[in-house]
UniProtKB/TrEMBL annotation:
Residues 1-32, 69-99 are annotated as: Disordered. This is Uncharacterized protein. The chain crosses the membrane at residues 36-60. The lineage of its organism: Bacteria, Bacillati, Actinomycetota, Actinomycetes, Pseudonocardiales. Residues 15-25 have a biased composition (Basic and acidic residues). Residues 85-97 have a biased composition (Polar residues). It comes from the Bacteria. Keywords: Membrane, Transmembrane, Transmembrane helix.
Amino acid sequence: MSDPLAANIAEDETGDRRPPVSNRERARRSTPPGSLWFAATAAAIGVVVSLCAGLGTIYVPQLWPAAAGTTPPPPALSSTWPLSGSPTRSTTATPTVPSGPPTGFYRHTGPQGLVTVLPDSFVPGSGKVKGTLVAKDPADPDVEVRFGGDQQGPDSLLETITSAANAEAASPEYTRVALTSTTHQGLPAVEWEFVKPNANGAVRHTRAHYWRANGVEYVLLVTAPPARFPDAAPILAAMTRYSETP
């Protein structure tokens, strides 16, 4: 893609410009997805939500009464799931998203129908990276978040993000903190975390969470000065936990 998120994430700074205000909502449904693509979206590692299924006990009733003087067989037990070495996601499991935003957050809808939560002081607006919205507190713009989605590419998610990370590694000022595979509500996901100066020379600590659903590649991202990153990380955790896609 000619304008990948990965290549622009550290440079997309809006300065002190107050972003346009969008309608806030506490429970807005997703909007229909469009068709774009993150060829190399940027950002990082962190918080993970996964599903696992436990041992179930199934009782199989007798079809005919037991013959006199015989002992009915004991109830049958299903096999343990997941089996050793098998995936931890059951194909019949339905991910559960907590209802309602947490205290101090509002629910917002971004590109491709991505619904997430943002701190109530954050104002979303358009950014330079296609397919994402940027949001921050106008009174405290150091901590910034981005969220959205675009049409996924032909490579796997891990290959796409790894390619973007390798491209950033050409810069001597870039430091990779982590690049790992994880899950998002039972779906494969990737988290990428790094430190790099933006176009103005200010060092930024960035973490992004990527996953794919129904042909769309989604991203949730936070970026802040290194000293403020402890304030940013919990925001990404809430955005991830309370996110929904069509």
